[in-house]
Structures are given as C-alpha cells and as structure tokens.
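Appendix B, record 7
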Amino acid sequence: MRKNNFMNKIIKLKGSILAGIIQIFACLIVYKFNIPNPNIVLFVVLSASIVQSGYLAGIISGVIAVLYSAFFFPQITVGSFIRRLIVTSCA
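Structure tokens (predicted):
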C-alpha cells in the first residue's frame, strides 16, 4: 500500500516538472514570435497543466507565467516595484 502511494507522488512530481518545462517552452515561443499579448497563450498552457497534472503543476506554471509577464511588461511599469507587481498580477 505504501509503495503505491509513493509511486503516485513520484508520477505527480514528474508531471509537474514536465508542465514547468512546457510552460518555459511556451514562453520561449511567445518571445520568439513576438506575440503582442502573450498572457493569453501562457494561461492556456497553465489551464492545461492544471487539468492534466494537478495543483502543483499549476503553481509551477503560474509562477513561470508571472515571471515572464514581469519580463514582458517592463516598458509599461518603469516606476516602482509596486506598480510593476500590480500590472503583472492584473495581466
């Protein structure tokens, strides 16, 4: 019984890592093709990762999407860190 529980945790962890890698590839593709509103594409990948692999994968993908948004919108938020955080969280 314990062995099955341990294997399920390993499978979920592998799915979460794979979801993070896919989200990073989505960020690279969005950056390469210069898509004007990349968050739509990133949130589609985020939703798919939550459905496929669970909340941990969603948290990992969400953090990657928010970090890319902070990278993508710096020209809008040239001011303080709080304005950058607000624009990133709203995007």
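Remarks on this record: The radius of gyration is 16 Å. The chain is about 80% helix and 0% strand.
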